[in-house]
Every structure is written in structure tokens, then in C-alpha cells.
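FIELD: query
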Amino acid sequence: MPIKNHLKGSSWRDQDLGGNRPDKSVCVTRYGAIGDAIQTSSVLAELKRKYKYVCINCEEKTYNILKHDPSIDEFFIQAKNQVPKEELAEYWNKLAPLFTKYINLCECVEGSCLAIPSRIQHSWPKEVRHKLMNHNYIELMHGIAEVPYTKPNTKFYPSKKEMKWAEKERKKLKGEVILWALSGSSIHKFTPHTDTVVQNLLNTHKDLYIVFVGDNACRILESGWEDNSRVLCRSGEWNIRQVLTFAELCNVIVGPETGVLNSVSMSPMRKIVLLSHSTKENLSRDWVNTSSLAPENVGCYPCHMLHYSSKYCDIHQETGSAMCAYNISPETIYHEITKYL
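FIELD: result
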């Protein structure tokens, strides 16, 4: 099992960040959400080919996703905001000499390919953002880490116990299964057409089951399906590791730009990814067996922006969804799914 170290207390300056690490060691700093962790797994796999000892400096939620990744020898974990933002550069400078090589992937996507509202790039014309930010996320990460890139090497590693649980759950469903990730981490990452598409799928495919997954907030999007025996409402019930493990056993995965879709990007089942602030070039260009659906006739797409609220996001007033999500039609989503059932 990898070594698990924690940054202790509120002051990091006087702490011993060292350890008995072997020669030819590398440390990667990467903070972020579920998808960021999964994308980083591709870089870590290549680094393990080059270095004897691989450490990742991350937050607890990243550790939760990557804790069984065989490419990692050590986790160096810090709490969110444990190191004040204005002290991060100094902290990283103290961490770097403890390894043969130090790689910082913070803002390799956010800030670099997705404009942050507080930064000047956010105010640039859309065409300029597109010209400068329309690069493949994982290929860029490999470049920063100075490791080869031919295709993504992303992978989620469940435990034996988690896999046994998922197999048991899958055996309960005697037919094809669609895993539907209802929402991502931002306002633009949900489609208002879920109910329409799901009802049509159930009407036309009698041996089909649909499993809804998401956080507690996604239970709102499950409303009305609770009593349907062919729809499993698991938002807020299954934890993220259970969701990612179960996803590997499904026939089709549907959802916006989320960690769930990233986790199966190189797996053989069909993926239907609903693009919003990213392009196919950014996200899914090299994914296996994937339909990348982009909105049509939406002037703000692709915005290449991070959205923390609806302030800079065009909203469809009737549904409350982003215009980019609304303009991937239910007919388009339904057609792409049924091609692979």
C-alpha cells in the first residue's frame, strides 16, 4: 500500500516535509475535483515507467479517488486551504527539493484552458480564448510532466471488495444498463432533457435499466422516477467510488463533463458525453468508443470558461439550464444512445 502522509496543523513552515525517499523520485502536485484526479492518473502511469518512486501532493478527495492506483508510492495530503493561497509558491518551493523531480499540475487545465473569472483571460474575446485554449487537457498535462503522450492512460482502480459489491449489484439487473451521471460540479453540467430521453428509452427498450447517479443535490433531478422499477435512483446513496466501480459494468454511460465520464474514457463501453465549456479537442478527442455531443446554434459555445454561478453563463429561462446544455436536443441524445443498445 502507498505511504499516506498528512500536512499537519495550520502552519507548514516549521514542519518536516522530508522522508526516506529513494533516488529517482518524483512528486506531482495536483489539487482539484474528481475529473482532475482521473486525468492525472494518466500522467502518473507514465511517470512510474521513468521513476522508481512516485508521490502525489493532493487533497483528501483526490486521495479518495486514487488511493489504489498502483503507480503511486506515496500520498502527501493537505486539507483544502490548509496552505493559504498567497503562501503556496513558497510551500511548493520547500517541497520540490525533497525529490529528484517536482511537477506542478495546478491550473494546467483551469486557468490555462478554462478561464477563471478573476483573471484577465476571462475578459478576452471568445475567438481569442478558443485559439489559445482549445488544447487537449491530458496531452497538455503530459507535456508539462515531460512524459510521452500517444493516448490517455486514465484508469480508476477499485478494490476487490468494491468490485465484488458492483458485480452483485449488476447481477440484479437482467438486461442492458445505462449509467446516467445527472450533473457535474458547475451550473452548466446538467441537461434539462433527461426525463424526456429516459421515458423514450423505457418505452422502446423493454429490457433496459437506467441508473441515476450524482450527489445529494441530484436527488432533485431524480424526482418522479422513484417508483419506476427500471430506474434506480442512487444519487446521494452510492459514494463516488461505488459509482466509478459500477460504471465499468454498464453498457452505456451518459452524462456531462464529469469525473464519471473521465473514469471510463478508455473503457470499452459506449460513452455519450454532453459538452458544455469544453470542446471534443479539449476533453474527449482520444477517448474510446465515445460520442461527443456539442450544442448547436449557441453563440457562447465553446466558452472555455469556469463557471461558479450563472453570472457569465447564458441560461435558458424556462428550464434553468445553460443554453449549451439545452441546445443538445433530446432527439440527438436519444439517437446516440439507441445506436448502441
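FIELD: remark
Residues 34-50 form the longest helix (17 residues).
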